[in-house]
Amino acid sequence: MPTTETDEHKSLREAVAALGKRHGRTYDRETLWSEAAKLGYLGVNLPEAYGGGGGGIAELSIVLEELGAAGCPLLMMVVSPAICGTVIARFGTEAQKQEWLPALADGTRTMAFGITEPDAGSNSHRITTTAHRDGADWLLTGRKVFISGVDIADATLIVGRTEDSRTGRLKPCLFIVPRDAEGFTRRQMDMELQAAEKQFELTLDDVRLPAEALVGDEDAGLLQLFAGLNPERIMTAAFAIGMGRYALSRAITYARDRTVWNTPIGAHQAIAHPLAQAHIDLELARLMMQKAAHLYDAGDDVAAGEAANMAKYAAGEACVKAVDQAVHTLGGNGLTREFGLASLITAARVARIAPVSREMILNYVSHQTLGLPKSY
What we know:
This protein is α+β, with helices and mostly antiparallel strands. It contains ten helices and eight strands. The chain has helices at 7-23, 29-38, 57-69, 76-91, 94-106, 221-257, 269-297, 301-330, 342-353, 358-369, and strands at 111-114, 130-134, 137-148, 155-163, 170-178, 184-188, 199-209, 214-215.
């Protein structure tokens, strides 16, 4: 993989950074989403044949990181183009590609992603949302929680399970569920975290779907699922790195200007060194994220899985440390609305928890990479 960014990637960073700077921390999500779409940023990873930019997750992660570094991250980029767009582009039927990819790329339609369930947690094998055939249709029943942006999405890509006729075991499958489907209801969850994108609990009560709602091969659901989960982890890393960079930038500016004992506080090593360490951690996390994106875009799903998990872990840890140090650098000012850092204290921890906890990533690495036995 390349150890330095290409000129094209550098130019993309500069252009997106300029867009983010125009919108800033007080951005309007709909306005920014629309402008990013018109500039081709939302669909930069989608195939050119369907209105996208023909790039990959490497390019899309740059877009999200730079918007985050400007204080205006778009969380639905993790979901709509990265997860849903990628899965449909790789495994969808031609009709699904024609219907969804151009609209996802130009921002006129968005898609949410539903996998998490109340009783399953990080154990996707305990998913109880099930689908069974009823003539030519599917009937989908189950519950989902912590699903982002369902209220603004035109459809939700739902992870369910179907019975394997040969073994009787349940296997994962993905279905496109329109927002107005009968039996498909949502309830906004009361979150302490305030964000532009809301979280929802979903109920699917015998939602009838046509045969063409199934994405990809019924017998290859696990492969298709992880084709979306690896980009999700990479994009979560980009989200976290951007947030960390934003917080660090605010702290650096403050440390350069704030003078208490005749010199700026940034001249004191007790202030300067932790900020330098935060910068190092963010840069290291970005390198792993770039490696993961490169492997995924090259089609190496197995190696990308390991790298994507590591990138998400490293970025989440680096983000939390950067935000904490930024707030600490500003002291009381770090808790005021004026400087816009206090809200990040909670937001930064999302990258440690979602879409998979750091403990489950450590389980993955210990089992898959180190070959250690499972404890569960």
